[in-house]
Write a structure and sequence with these properties.
Helix content: 25-40%
Length: 249
Amino acid sequence: MSRLFIFRDLNINDQVIVSGEDAHHIIRVLRYRPGDVISISDGANAESFGVIYDIDMRSTELKLKIVEKNKRKEIKPFITLLQGLPKGDKLDWILQKNTEIGVRKFVPIVTKRTVTNIAPSKIERRKERWEKIVKEAAKQCMRMDIPEIGQVLTFDSSFQEIKKHQLSIIPWEQEKATSLKKIMKNIDKSISRIAVFIGPEGGFSVDEIEKAKSAGAVPVSLGSRILRTETAAVATCSMIMYELGDMGG
């Protein structure tokens, strides 16, 4: 079943007209026809089901009638992934996969070992691209909401996110005493907001780890193997969602 995002309140028997890219995808790519059902999310916690009753092939437009409406609980915990900007298009993959896992917010950060340099004039255009990626990923995995993409921050300024979360962790290959497994085993199950800091390809420097600790973040080990930045992000957020969220059923 296809998923649409329509950011307004819908009620049973309401009629909705869909055009543009969404209509093109439904009509030309998915080849839906009158009588087919489409899931519609309001971008928060309400899911409606609409039946196609008319398709205009010339104008690439379709009409839906709302036949069912339900409410779902929001994804918990609220995970914010503060991702050190990686090289190339790796961030695209990180955004896509972590959207599927259930991450609620992404904040790209520039660290000491960040190689990628985004010109200020191109940041907004890049952010639009990232927002499109998470929206498409949310559609694909049938999420009710679309993750937020925050502004690109320096590492030091990203510490403001720590104050908004009950727990902030920063995986680090040199951490020996505290593992993510240990943290998850002893965690307060009522914690609902967690920040996860992931370094770029070169990881975090010792100085950055000390700054993060002073700000309230907890360094953790992910095990004996060194993970790529994109793997570390998916592995960490998956473990958190398994322990505290709905991953695993």
